[in-house]
Amino acid sequence: MDDTTPSPRRGRAQDAGRFDWHPEPAMFDLQADGARQALEDLGRQAWALAVEYVYDEALVRPVGPDSYQELRARFFGPSLEPAAAPATPHPSSAVLDEVRERVLPYAYNAYHPRSFSYFTPPPLPMSVQGELFCQVLHQGIDVFHSGPIGGLVEEEVTRWLADLVGAGADSWAVLTSGGVMANIMAMTVARDRHLGHLLGTGGPPRGRALEGARVYVSDQAHFSIGRALDMLGFPAEALVVVESDRRYRLQPGPVADRIAEDRAAGFLPFCIAAVCGSTNTGSVDDVPGLAELARTERLWLHVDAAYGGAARLSARDACRVPGLALADSVTVDPHKWLFQAYDIGGLVVRHREDLHRTFDRSPEYYRSTMPEAEPLNWLEYSMEGTRRFRALKLWTSWKHVGSAGFARLVEHDNDVAAFLAAEIARSDDFEAAVAEPDLSVVCFRHLAPGVSDEELDAHQDRLQRALEVSGEAWVSTTKLRGRTYLRAGVMNWLTTEDDALGMLESLRHLAGTLPT
Hints:
Radius of gyration: 26 Å
Low-confidence stretches: none
Distance between the termini: 82 Å
Oligomer: single chain
C-alpha cells in the first residue's frame, strides 16, 4: 500500500474515544483494538441463546398457555401498554437476558413436533444461517450497485423457482415478502397487461375502465386476491366467488357458467385465480381444466401455489398439483413448504416483459456508469423498492438439502397427514371434512353425541383452547360451509405418526373434561 491509497484507519487518533458514551464502544468502532473479539463474543452468546430457545422452549410445548390479555400483562406490565423507548444504552448481555426472560418463553414454537400449525414450518438450520449472512451483508436488492452479488443470487434462485413450476425459458420470477405481496403483484400484472389488452386501451386501464371487469375465484381462495382487487381500484363486484365442490376444489364447469352469465350481462371476464393448496383445507383446484377454460375464454390464469407448489419437487407427489406450467402467473412461498425463515415469497410469470412493463420505473438518481451492458436492476420487476437479500437463505438451503431433500421433507408431511386422516376415518369420535386430503392439511371435528350443530361448533373452539393450554399439542380452527372444524397442518419434518396419534389422544382426553 502506498501513500496515495486510502486507508480505513487514517484519523484513528482523532476518533479515539468517540463511542465512549456506550458501555461497549467496540460494538460501534469496528476498527478499534478488541472490536473483532467483541463481535465474536456477541455472536457466540446470541447463538447459544438461540439453541437454548430451541431445546428449552420450542421443543417443550407448542405455545404458551397465556390468553391475549395475560400475555400483554406479562410483556407490558400492569399498564398493558408499551413502555417509553429506553433513554440510555445497555450492555448487550443485559439485552440478551431480557430476550431470554421476556420474549423466548412466550413465542409460538414452530419446531414442536405436535405443533400442527397454519403454514409455519420450522426453518431449516441452513436457512437461518443464510438469514444471518443476509443481515450482515446488508445488500439492497433494488439496483445493481446497492447489492451486486445479491442481485445475481436472486436471479439464480428465482430461475430455480420458475423451473419448479415448469415455466418456460421466457419466464421470470421475483422474490417478495410472501404470498400476499406475490398475489397483489400478480393481479397488478393481469390488470395492466391482460385487461388492458382486452380493452384495447393502449395502456394500463384505470378508473371507470375497471368497472365491468370480472375475476373468478373459489370460496377457498386466499383473502389476498380480494385485497389486491380493492387496492388496484376495482369495484367490489369485480370479485366473483364460485362455490367449490364437496372436496373444496374449484371446477371449470361452474366457472364457465358464471363467465357466460357475466358476458350476457355485458361484463368483461379477464382472470381466473386458482389455488393449489388452500389455506383452509389444503385443497387443489382443477388447474388443467381451468387452464383450458382460460385459454378458450381468453382469460389470464393465476395460480396461488404458495403452499402446494413445493410438491412439484417430488416425483411421487407432483401429480397432486398438476398444471402449474399452464398458468400465466404462479405464486410460490418458500417460507411455507421449502422450510425457509421468514420472510420470502415468490411470483413467477410466463413472460419476463409482463413484469418489467408493469413495474419498471427509472428514477433519475438510479444511473449506471458501467461501460458494458446495463446491469440487472430488480427495482424494475417488483412493486417493492429496496428489498432484503432474501435469496441467500433459500440458495444456501437448496445447496444444502438439494431438490431431492426437499422432496423427502414434503413427502414425509403428506404421509403423516394421510396417516392422520386414516386414523380419523377409523374412529367413531372424530369425522374429517375430506377423507383423503389433497396435501398435508387435515380438517376434522370431535363428535359429541346428542348436541346441536351450534353446540358442536362451540365444542371445537373449547377443545382447541384446552389443547393449547395443556401444551400437549396445537391445532387451529376454521369454518367450512358454516361449521367449525379443527385444522391440523402437517408442515414439520419433526412430526411423526406417533405425534399425530398423540394429538388425537390428547383431544379425546380433554374432551372428557369439558362441559357438554
